[in-house]
Amino acid sequence: MIPPIYQTSTFVQDGINVLRNGHEYSRGSNPTRNGFETQLAALEAGHAGFAFASGIAAEDALLRAVLAPGDHIVLGADGYGGTNRLVNDLHGKWGISNTPVDITDLDTVEAAVQSGKTALLWVETPSNPLLGIADVAGWARIAHTAGALLVVDNTFATPFLQRPLDLGADAVVHSTTKYIGGHSDVLGGAVIVAKKEFRGQELAQAVGFQQFAGGAVAGPQDCFLAARGLKTLDLRMERHCSNAAVIARWLGTREEVENVLYPGLKTHPGHLLAKAQSGGFGGIVSVQLAGGEAAARAFAESMELFALSVSLGGVESLVCYAAEMTHASVIDTPLAVPRNLVRLSVGIEQVGDLVADLELGLSAARRGLGRYAAA
Ligand SMILES: *Cc1c(COP(=O)(O)O)cnc(C)c1O
C-alpha cells in the first residue's frame, strides 16, 4: 500500500555491472525518489521529474543543465529572493547575466530579450510577495520566438491550481518544501520538464545528468515525506484557497489596511488572467498597512496563530515581514519589497480563529507596537 523508504546508499549487483532492477547507487537512482519523481511528472503533465535536496538546489541544477557562460536570462523581478541571489551572486560569476522585468508587462519582457544571447526566461506566478500574475502563454510565445526556454516557478500555485507546461512552459520548478510537502517538516525541490530538445540535447537528459553529476539529490526519507504530502495536496489547497479568500475580503474592509494583494479579489489587476489560467487563487495574501513600516512590523509580531516565520505552504498559518526576512537579499535595490507589506501564508485552521488572530494583529498595528518591539 505504501512505497517503502529505501534507506540505502548502494545496491547489490547480480554480476559486474549487471544491475538488479536498474539501481546501482542512490545518487543516480533510488526507488523511493524515483516514485516521487514519477508522481511529480504526472501531476505537472510533464515528460520527466527530478527531485532535489531543496528548491534552490533544483533551480541551480536546471540553470547548470541548460546554460553556458555568456548566456542571458530574462528574470521576473518580483520573485523569490533566493532565486535572485542564486542567479546574480552564484551564476553571475560564471558569466550569466540577467535582466529583471515586470512580470505583468509582456512588452517589457519582449524588449528585455537579447537576440542570440537570451537562453532562458524565468517567471514566478503568482509572484512572491506581490502576488502579481504573469501570462504564462504570452511569456512562452516570447521565449520560443527567441529560441529560449521558459521556466515557471509553480511553488505558489502547485499543479492542483495551475499546470504551466500545459500553457507552453518548457520546465517547472518547485520548492517542495512548501505546499507539496505541506507540513513544514521537510526541505525539497523539483524540476519537471516537457519533452523538448535544447541545443541538441533532450532537456530531461540534461537535467538528469546534472542531478547525478552535481549530486544535490533528495534523500529517501525526504521523498517519502513529500510524497505523503501529495496525498492531501488537493484537500489542503481547497482549504488554503477558501481561507485566504475570506481573509483577503475581510482585510479589505479594515481601515488599518491600505491595500490587500490577492489575485482572487476582483480589484486585483491580474484577477481575470489568474481565473483564466489557473483553477484557484492560492493561499498567500499580502497586505500593506496604512500605518507604514511601524504598523506592519507590529502586525507581524503580534499574532499567535500566524507564527512569525519565513517559508510558506504548510498547514499552519505563518506571517512574514518580507522586506527584511524572505527578501533581505534584495534590500536597498530596485527589487526591494515595500516596507509596509506583510505576507501571510494562510493555513488550514478554522477561518474564524484566523480572523480573530488577525484582529489581534491589527489592534497592535494601530498602536504601532509589536510583541517584541517594547523590549
Ligand atoms: C522557498 C521557495 C524557493 C526556494 O526553495 P527552498 O526549498 O527553500 O530551497 C523557490 N521558489 C519559491 C517561490 C519559494 O517560495
Explain what the structure shows:
- The chain has 375 residues and is an alpha/beta fold.
- It has 12 helices and 16 strands.
- It has helices at residues 31-43, 55-66, 81-90, 106-112, 136-145, 158-161, 203-214, 220-231, 233-252, 271-277, 292-301, 351-367, and strands spanning 13-15, 18-19, 48-52, 72-76, 97-101, 118-124, 149-153, 171-175, 189-193, 197-198, 201-202, 257-261, 284-289, 307-308, 318-320, 341-345.
- α1 (31-43) runs parallel beside α8, α2 (55-66) packs across α7 and α11 (292-301) packs across α12 (351-367).
- The chain is globular, with a radius of gyration of 21 Å.
- The mean pLDDT is 96.
- InterPro entries: Cys/Met-Metab_PyrdxlP-dep_enz, PyrdxlP-dep_Trfase, PyrdxlP-dep_Trfase_major, PyrdxlP-dep_Trfase_small.
- This is Cystathionine gamma-synthase.
Can you tell me the number of structural domains? 2
Low-confidence segments, given as residue ranges, are none
In N-to-C order, the SSE pattern is EEHEHEHEHEHEHEEEEHHHEHEHEEEH
Whole-number radius of gyration? Answer: 21 Å
Question: So how many helices?
Answer: 12
Proportion of beta-strand residues:
15-25%
CATH class of the largest domain: Alpha Beta
Give me the CATH superfamily of the largest domain. Type I PLP-dependent aspartate aminotransferase-like (Major domain)
Query: What CATH architecture of the largest domain do you see?
Result: 3-Layer(aba) Sandwich
**Number of DSSP strands?**
16
Q: Which overall shape is indicated by the principal axes computed on the Cα atoms?
A: globular
| Largest sheet geometry | 7 strands, mixed
Structural class: alpha/beta
Provide the list of bound ligands, each named once: pyridoxal-5'-phosphate
Distance between the termini: 53 Å
Please bin the fraction of helical residues. 25-40%
Give the integer mean of the pLDDT values: 96
Could you tell me the CATH topology label of the largest domain. Aspartate Aminotransferase, domain 2
**Main sheet: which strands, in order across?**
3-9-8-7-6-4-5
